[in-house]
Amino acid sequence: MVWGWGTAAACSLAQAGCGGKGVRLTSSLVRFKCLMVAEQPGQSGGPDSGPRPRQQINKKPRQKPQKQICKPVLEYFDERYGQELGELWDKVREVLLLPSDWQYAVLVNKFSQSVTFEQYLQSQGYYNFLPDVLPFSQHSLRCYISNIQYQFPRLQHHTDRLKEYYLLNAASLLPVLALDVHDGECVLDMCAAPGGKSLAILQYATPGHFLCNEYDSLRHRRLKQALESFIPKDLRSIISVTDLDGRHIGPRWPQMYDKILVDTPCSNDRSWLFSSDVLQACMRITQRPYLPVLQRQLLRSALEALRPGGTVVYSTCTLSRAENDDVVASVLNSYDNIQAVDLTGLARSLSDNFMFVEGVQHGQLIVPERGKCWGPMYVSKLCKLH
User: Fold this and answer.
1) I need a surface site. Which of 83, 198, 220, 266 has the fewest CB within 10 A?
2) pLDDT tens across 157-212, in order?
Protein backbone atom coordinates (compact mmCIF):
# COMPACT_ATOMS: atom_id res chain seq x y z
CA MET A 1 0.00 0.00 0.00
CA VAL A 2 1.20 3.49 -0.82
CA TRP A 3 0.04 6.44 1.26
CA GLY A 4 1.07 9.79 -0.12
CA TRP A 5 0.05 13.29 -0.98
CA GLY A 6 -0.65 14.52 -4.49
CA THR A 7 1.71 13.46 -7.26
CA ALA A 8 4.03 11.55 -4.94
CA ALA A 9 1.62 8.64 -4.52
CA ALA A 10 3.35 6.36 -7.04
CA CYS A 11 6.92 5.49 -6.07
CA SER A 12 7.58 4.08 -9.51
CA LEU A 13 7.38 7.64 -10.82
CA ALA A 14 9.99 8.87 -8.35
CA GLN A 15 12.87 8.72 -10.79
CA ALA A 16 11.17 11.08 -13.19
CA GLY A 17 10.36 13.51 -10.38
CA CYS A 18 13.79 13.87 -8.84
CA GLY A 19 14.47 17.24 -10.33
CA GLY A 20 12.00 18.81 -7.90
CA LYS A 21 12.38 22.45 -6.92
CA GLY A 22 12.40 23.87 -3.43
CA VAL A 23 9.15 24.47 -1.59
CA ARG A 24 7.54 27.71 -0.51
CA LEU A 25 7.66 28.05 3.28
CA THR A 26 4.45 28.80 5.10
CA SER A 27 4.14 32.23 6.67
CA SER A 28 1.31 31.72 9.13
CA LEU A 29 1.67 33.06 12.66
CA VAL A 30 3.03 30.47 15.12
CA ARG A 31 0.75 29.42 17.93
CA PHE A 32 2.80 27.88 20.68
CA LYS A 33 1.55 25.00 22.76
CA CYS A 34 3.94 25.60 25.62
CA LEU A 35 4.37 29.38 25.32
CA MET A 36 1.10 31.28 25.59
CA VAL A 37 0.70 35.00 24.86
CA ALA A 38 -0.65 37.04 27.76
CA GLU A 39 -1.37 40.72 28.32
CA GLN A 40 0.94 42.36 30.82
CA PRO A 41 -0.46 44.82 33.41
CA GLY A 42 -0.75 48.29 31.95
CA GLN A 43 -0.28 47.11 28.36
CA SER A 44 -2.77 46.64 25.59
CA GLY A 45 -1.44 43.34 24.29
CA GLY A 46 -1.64 44.69 20.76
CA PRO A 47 0.50 43.63 17.84
CA ASP A 48 3.47 45.75 18.93
CA SER A 49 3.62 44.47 22.50
CA GLY A 50 5.22 41.14 21.50
CA PRO A 51 4.49 37.60 22.67
CA ARG A 52 5.32 36.63 26.23
CA PRO A 53 5.34 33.21 27.83
CA ARG A 54 2.43 32.82 30.22
CA GLN A 55 3.20 29.26 31.23
CA GLN A 56 6.85 28.50 31.89
CA ILE A 57 8.24 25.12 30.98
CA ASN A 58 8.88 23.08 34.10
CA LYS A 59 12.51 23.17 35.16
CA LYS A 60 12.10 19.93 37.06
CA PRO A 61 10.70 16.77 35.49
CA ARG A 62 7.21 15.82 36.56
CA GLN A 63 7.11 12.83 38.88
CA LYS A 64 6.59 9.62 36.95
CA PRO A 65 6.47 6.00 38.06
CA GLN A 66 10.02 4.80 38.54
CA LYS A 67 11.19 2.52 35.73
CA GLN A 68 12.23 -0.89 36.92
CA ILE A 69 15.47 -2.42 35.67
CA CYS A 70 15.04 -5.83 34.07
CA LYS A 71 17.69 -7.83 35.91
CA PRO A 72 18.16 -10.62 33.32
CA VAL A 73 18.82 -7.99 30.65
CA LEU A 74 21.25 -6.10 32.89
CA GLU A 75 23.13 -9.31 33.65
CA TYR A 76 23.29 -10.07 29.93
CA PHE A 77 24.54 -6.55 29.18
CA ASP A 78 27.16 -6.76 31.92
CA GLU A 79 28.55 -9.93 30.41
CA ARG A 80 28.30 -8.93 26.74
CA TYR A 81 29.22 -5.25 26.87
CA GLY A 82 31.75 -5.75 29.63
CA GLN A 83 33.67 -7.84 27.11
CA GLU A 84 33.12 -5.55 24.11
CA LEU A 85 33.61 -2.15 25.77
CA GLY A 86 35.83 -3.00 28.75
CA GLU A 87 36.09 -0.21 31.32
CA LEU A 88 33.98 2.09 29.15
CA TRP A 89 30.95 -0.08 29.90
CA ASP A 90 30.99 1.10 33.53
CA LYS A 91 30.52 4.74 32.41
CA VAL A 92 27.82 3.83 29.91
CA ARG A 93 26.08 1.60 32.44
CA GLU A 94 25.90 4.43 34.98
CA VAL A 95 23.93 6.62 32.56
CA LEU A 96 21.66 3.86 31.25
CA LEU A 97 20.61 2.92 34.78
CA LEU A 98 19.43 6.48 35.57
CA PRO A 99 16.56 7.27 33.18
CA SER A 100 15.70 10.30 35.33
CA ASP A 101 18.89 11.90 33.99
CA TRP A 102 18.10 11.22 30.34
CA GLN A 103 17.43 14.30 28.24
CA TYR A 104 15.77 15.13 24.96
CA ALA A 105 16.98 17.51 22.31
CA VAL A 106 14.53 19.96 20.73
CA LEU A 107 14.43 19.73 16.94
CA VAL A 108 12.86 22.98 15.72
CA ASN A 109 10.39 22.75 12.86
CA LYS A 110 11.48 25.35 10.31
CA PHE A 111 8.10 25.16 8.58
CA SER A 112 6.32 26.61 11.61
CA GLN A 113 8.40 29.82 11.47
CA SER A 114 8.86 29.64 15.26
CA VAL A 115 11.42 32.43 15.78
CA THR A 116 9.93 33.42 19.12
CA PHE A 117 10.13 29.84 20.35
CA GLU A 118 13.83 29.66 19.48
CA GLN A 119 14.40 32.88 21.38
CA TYR A 120 12.66 31.34 24.38
CA LEU A 121 14.86 28.23 24.12
CA GLN A 122 17.97 30.40 24.18
CA SER A 123 16.68 32.35 27.19
CA GLN A 124 16.36 29.03 29.06
CA GLY A 125 19.97 28.01 28.41
CA TYR A 126 19.42 25.92 25.29
CA TYR A 127 21.81 26.24 22.35
CA ASN A 128 21.84 24.98 18.79
CA PHE A 129 24.79 22.57 18.66
CA LEU A 130 24.84 22.29 14.86
CA PRO A 131 26.42 25.58 13.63
CA ASP A 132 29.90 24.31 14.51
CA VAL A 133 29.38 21.13 12.51
CA LEU A 134 31.06 21.88 9.19
CA PRO A 135 30.17 21.80 6.35
CA PHE A 136 26.66 21.09 7.59
CA SER A 137 26.08 24.52 9.12
CA GLN A 138 25.03 25.84 5.72
CA HIS A 139 21.78 23.91 6.02
CA SER A 140 18.66 24.89 7.94
CA LEU A 141 18.63 21.99 10.42
CA ARG A 142 18.36 23.43 13.96
CA CYS A 143 18.46 21.33 17.11
CA TYR A 144 18.77 22.69 20.66
CA ILE A 145 20.26 20.98 23.69
CA SER A 146 20.99 22.12 27.24
CA ASN A 147 23.28 21.22 30.11
CA ILE A 148 20.36 21.90 32.46
CA GLN A 149 17.52 19.41 32.52
CA TYR A 150 14.09 20.81 31.64
CA GLN A 151 10.86 18.98 30.99
CA PHE A 152 9.46 19.97 27.59
CA PRO A 153 5.92 18.75 26.87
CA ARG A 154 5.28 16.52 23.91
CA LEU A 155 2.96 18.38 21.55
CA GLN A 156 -0.41 16.94 20.61
CA HIS A 157 -1.36 16.32 16.98
CA HIS A 158 -3.60 18.97 15.41
CA THR A 159 -4.94 18.92 11.87
CA ASP A 160 -5.13 22.72 11.59
CA ARG A 161 -1.57 23.69 12.51
CA LEU A 162 1.99 22.38 12.48
CA LYS A 163 3.97 21.45 15.56
CA GLU A 164 6.80 23.78 16.57
CA TYR A 165 9.27 21.11 17.68
CA TYR A 166 10.04 17.40 17.95
CA LEU A 167 11.77 15.79 20.95
CA LEU A 168 14.47 13.22 20.23
CA ASN A 169 17.80 11.83 21.35
CA ALA A 170 20.33 14.29 19.88
CA ALA A 171 22.50 11.39 18.68
CA SER A 172 19.66 10.46 16.30
CA LEU A 173 20.77 13.31 14.05
CA LEU A 174 24.15 11.71 13.33
CA PRO A 175 22.69 9.46 10.57
CA VAL A 176 20.96 12.48 9.00
CA LEU A 177 24.17 14.51 9.00
CA ALA A 178 26.09 11.56 7.55
CA LEU A 179 23.48 11.06 4.81
CA ASP A 180 23.93 14.72 3.70
CA VAL A 181 20.88 14.94 1.45
CA HIS A 182 20.95 17.60 -1.29
CA ASP A 183 17.95 19.37 -2.80
CA GLY A 184 16.34 17.44 -5.64
CA GLU A 185 17.73 13.99 -4.78
CA CYS A 186 15.67 10.81 -4.61
CA VAL A 187 15.75 9.67 -0.99
CA LEU A 188 14.54 6.55 0.83
CA ASP A 189 14.09 6.12 4.57
CA MET A 190 13.66 2.34 4.66
CA CYS A 191 12.64 1.87 8.32
CA ALA A 192 11.24 5.32 9.00
CA ALA A 193 8.97 5.12 12.08
CA PRO A 194 8.42 6.84 14.39
CA GLY A 195 9.56 9.54 11.97
CA GLY A 196 12.14 11.70 13.73
CA LYS A 197 14.89 11.11 11.17
CA SER A 198 12.49 11.58 8.24
CA LEU A 199 11.45 14.92 9.70
CA ALA A 200 15.08 15.91 10.22
CA ILE A 201 15.89 15.05 6.59
CA LEU A 202 13.10 17.36 5.45
CA GLN A 203 14.44 20.11 7.72
CA TYR A 204 17.90 19.54 6.22
CA ALA A 205 17.03 19.63 2.50
CA THR A 206 14.20 19.30 -0.01
CA PRO A 207 14.40 15.99 -1.89
CA GLY A 208 12.98 15.63 -5.36
CA HIS A 209 11.16 12.58 -4.10
CA PHE A 210 11.14 11.09 -0.59
CA LEU A 211 9.89 7.58 0.19
CA CYS A 212 9.25 6.96 3.89
CA ASN A 213 8.69 3.26 4.49
CA GLU A 214 7.63 1.38 7.63
CA TYR A 215 6.62 -2.27 7.63
CA ASP A 216 5.00 -2.45 11.08
CA SER A 217 1.35 -1.36 10.86
CA LEU A 218 1.15 0.48 14.20
CA ARG A 219 4.44 2.32 13.65
CA HIS A 220 3.33 3.07 10.07
CA ARG A 221 0.33 5.00 11.43
CA ARG A 222 2.59 6.92 13.83
CA LEU A 223 4.87 7.82 10.93
CA LYS A 224 2.00 9.23 8.86
CA GLN A 225 0.77 11.32 11.76
CA ALA A 226 4.26 12.68 12.46
CA LEU A 227 4.63 13.83 8.86
CA GLU A 228 1.17 15.42 8.91
CA SER A 229 2.07 17.25 12.14
CA PHE A 230 5.29 18.78 10.84
CA ILE A 231 5.22 19.08 7.05
CA PRO A 232 3.20 21.74 5.19
CA LYS A 233 0.76 20.66 2.50
CA ASP A 234 2.73 22.25 -0.32
CA LEU A 235 5.68 19.94 0.45
CA ARG A 236 3.69 16.73 0.75
CA SER A 237 3.54 16.18 -3.01
CA ILE A 238 7.15 14.94 -2.95
CA ILE A 239 6.52 12.40 -0.16
CA SER A 240 5.26 8.82 -0.34
CA VAL A 241 4.60 6.69 2.74
CA THR A 242 4.56 2.90 2.26
CA ASP A 243 4.29 -0.19 4.47
CA LEU A 244 6.51 -2.55 2.48
CA ASP A 245 8.89 -5.18 3.75
CA GLY A 246 12.18 -3.33 3.35
CA ARG A 247 13.88 -6.49 2.09
CA HIS A 248 11.73 -6.29 -1.06
CA ILE A 249 12.41 -2.64 -1.93
CA GLY A 250 15.77 -3.24 -3.61
CA PRO A 251 14.51 -5.94 -6.01
CA ARG A 252 11.37 -3.88 -6.68
CA TRP A 253 13.14 -0.58 -7.46
CA PRO A 254 16.78 -1.32 -8.34
CA GLN A 255 19.14 1.66 -8.62
CA MET A 256 16.32 4.13 -7.93
CA TYR A 257 17.68 6.26 -5.07
CA ASP A 258 20.54 8.71 -4.56
CA LYS A 259 20.50 8.54 -0.74
CA ILE A 260 19.11 5.79 1.51
CA LEU A 261 18.83 5.65 5.28
CA VAL A 262 18.59 2.19 6.85
CA ASP A 263 17.86 2.88 10.51
CA THR A 264 17.36 -0.79 11.06
CA PRO A 265 15.32 -2.59 13.76
CA CYS A 266 17.77 -3.38 16.55
CA SER A 267 18.04 -4.35 20.20
CA ASN A 268 17.35 -0.76 21.36
CA ASP A 269 19.33 -1.07 24.57
CA ARG A 270 17.71 1.82 26.45
CA SER A 271 14.17 0.44 26.22
CA TRP A 272 15.17 -3.22 26.51
CA LEU A 273 16.93 -2.58 29.82
CA PHE A 274 13.61 -1.47 31.35
CA SER A 275 11.36 -4.16 29.89
CA SER A 276 8.26 -4.60 32.03
CA ASP A 277 7.69 -8.15 30.80
CA VAL A 278 10.60 -10.23 32.12
CA LEU A 279 9.58 -13.35 30.18
CA GLN A 280 9.45 -11.41 26.91
CA ALA A 281 12.79 -9.77 27.70
CA CYS A 282 14.38 -13.18 28.26
CA MET A 283 12.94 -14.41 24.97
CA ARG A 284 14.58 -11.45 23.26
CA ILE A 285 17.93 -12.55 24.66
CA THR A 286 17.54 -15.92 22.95
CA GLN A 287 16.33 -14.30 19.73
CA ARG A 288 18.98 -11.58 19.61
CA PRO A 289 21.52 -13.57 17.54
CA TYR A 290 18.99 -13.64 14.68
CA LEU A 291 18.69 -9.84 14.42
CA PRO A 292 21.89 -9.40 12.38
CA VAL A 293 20.43 -11.70 9.73
CA LEU A 294 17.52 -9.31 9.18
CA GLN A 295 19.82 -6.30 9.35
CA ARG A 296 22.11 -7.68 6.65
CA GLN A 297 19.10 -8.41 4.44
CA LEU A 298 17.80 -4.86 4.82
CA LEU A 299 21.21 -3.36 4.09
CA ARG A 300 21.65 -5.52 0.99
CA SER A 301 18.22 -4.46 -0.23
CA ALA A 302 19.19 -0.81 0.25
CA LEU A 303 22.39 -1.28 -1.73
CA GLU A 304 20.41 -2.85 -4.56
CA ALA A 305 18.05 0.16 -4.58
CA LEU A 306 21.00 2.59 -4.63
CA ARG A 307 22.21 4.28 -7.79
CA PRO A 308 25.92 4.17 -8.68
CA GLY A 309 27.60 7.08 -6.92
CA GLY A 310 24.93 7.15 -4.23
CA THR A 311 25.29 6.55 -0.50
CA VAL A 312 23.59 4.40 2.11
CA VAL A 313 23.73 5.21 5.81
CA TYR A 314 23.23 2.23 8.11
CA SER A 315 22.39 3.01 11.74
CA THR A 316 21.21 1.41 14.99
CA CYS A 317 20.58 2.51 18.56
CA THR A 318 22.42 -0.39 20.17
CA LEU A 319 25.93 -0.96 21.51
CA SER A 320 26.03 -4.45 20.02
CA ARG A 321 29.07 -5.08 17.82
CA ALA A 322 27.20 -7.97 16.16
CA GLU A 323 24.46 -5.57 15.01
CA ASN A 324 26.83 -2.75 14.09
CA ASP A 325 30.32 -3.21 12.67
CA ASP A 326 29.90 -6.94 12.10
CA VAL A 327 26.83 -6.42 9.89
CA VAL A 328 28.64 -3.81 7.79
CA ALA A 329 31.81 -5.91 7.56
CA SER A 330 29.83 -8.91 6.35
CA VAL A 331 28.16 -6.90 3.60
CA LEU A 332 31.38 -5.18 2.53
CA ASN A 333 33.09 -8.54 2.17
CA SER A 334 30.50 -9.67 -0.39
CA TYR A 335 30.61 -6.59 -2.67
CA ASP A 336 33.44 -5.26 -4.82
CA ASN A 337 31.72 -1.94 -5.61
CA ILE A 338 30.80 -0.80 -2.07
CA GLN A 339 33.18 1.26 0.04
CA ALA A 340 32.89 2.61 3.59
CA VAL A 341 33.18 6.41 3.89
CA ASP A 342 35.38 7.87 6.62
CA LEU A 343 33.25 9.77 9.18
CA THR A 344 36.14 10.89 11.37
CA GLY A 345 35.74 14.55 10.41
CA LEU A 346 32.05 14.55 11.28
CA ALA A 347 32.74 12.85 14.60
CA ARG A 348 35.47 15.35 15.43
CA SER A 349 33.12 18.28 14.80
CA LEU A 350 30.58 16.78 17.23
CA SER A 351 33.01 15.69 19.95
CA ASP A 352 32.16 18.58 22.29
CA ASN A 353 28.67 17.18 22.78
CA PHE A 354 29.00 13.45 22.04
CA MET A 355 31.22 10.63 23.27
CA PHE A 356 32.60 8.54 20.39
CA VAL A 357 34.12 5.10 20.92
CA GLU A 358 37.61 4.52 19.54
CA GLY A 359 38.44 1.50 17.43
CA VAL A 360 35.17 1.20 15.49
CA GLN A 361 36.29 -0.04 12.10
CA HIS A 362 33.50 0.77 9.64
CA GLY A 363 31.67 3.70 11.22
CA GLN A 364 31.17 5.73 14.39
CA LEU A 365 29.54 4.78 17.69
CA ILE A 366 28.17 7.35 20.15
CA VAL A 367 27.81 6.10 23.73
CA PRO A 368 26.27 7.94 26.70
CA GLU A 369 28.38 9.11 29.60
CA ARG A 370 28.01 11.69 32.38
CA GLY A 371 27.66 15.15 30.83
CA LYS A 372 27.14 13.66 27.36
CA CYS A 373 24.13 11.44 27.87
CA TRP A 374 23.26 10.97 24.19
CA GLY A 375 23.22 7.60 22.44
CA PRO A 376 23.84 4.79 21.87
CA MET A 377 23.90 5.42 18.15
CA TYR A 378 25.96 3.56 15.55
CA VAL A 379 26.39 4.99 12.03
CA SER A 380 28.16 3.66 8.96
CA LYS A 381 28.18 5.38 5.56
CA LEU A 382 28.62 3.30 2.41
CA CYS A 383 29.20 4.52 -1.14
CA LYS A 384 28.32 2.60 -4.31
CA LEU A 385 31.23 3.06 -6.68
CA HIS A 386 29.65 1.64 -9.86
Assistant:
1) 83
2) 887 889 999 999 999 999 999 999 999 999 999 999 999 999 999 999 999 999 99
C-beta contacts of 282-290 below 8 A and 24+ residues apart: 282/72, 285/72, 285/73, 285/76, 288/320, 289/322
Question: DSSP per residue over 140-188, as a string?
Answer: ---EEE-SS--BPPPPPP-SSS--SEEEE-GGGHHHHHHH---TT-EEE
- For residue 138, how many other CB atoms are within 10 A of its CB? 7
The answer to whether 372 and 168 have CB atoms below 8 angstroms apart is no
Write down the catalytic residue from 70, 317, 373, 383: 317
Q: What are 28-39's pLDDT values in tens digits?
A: 323 333 333 333
Please report, in angstroms and rounded to a whole number, the separation of the first and last CA atoms in the chain: 31
CB distance 285 to 73 below 8 Å: yes
Q: Is residue 99 a contact partner of residue 67, using CB atoms and an 8 Å limit?
A: yes
34 is catalytic: no
C-alpha to C-alpha distance for 375 and 367, rounded to whole angstroms: 5
